[in-house]
Design a protein that fits this description.
single chain; 58 residues; mainly alpha; 2 helices; rod-shaped
């Protein structure tokens, strides 16, 4: 048995966890877009709590 026989097999590139920039960024962009949209929807609603606590201040 030679030294070459004891080396671990080379890992093919397809077996590694390598991602492109777009594959990493796309989910983050989608998440932020959805959060902004949800925030805009919630921001336009006035809750009963807000009416009860903030209206007398005006």
């Amino acid at each position: 048995m030679t030294n070459d026989d004891r080396r671990p097999p080379l890992v093919r590139r397809s077996d590694t966890l390598s991602y492109t920039f777009a594959e990493v960024i796309r989910p983050a962009r989608n998440f932020l877009h959805n959060e902004k949209q949800e925030w805009e929807e919630c921001r336009s609603e006035v809750t009963a709590f807000e009416l009860k606590t903030l209206l007398p201040v005006l």
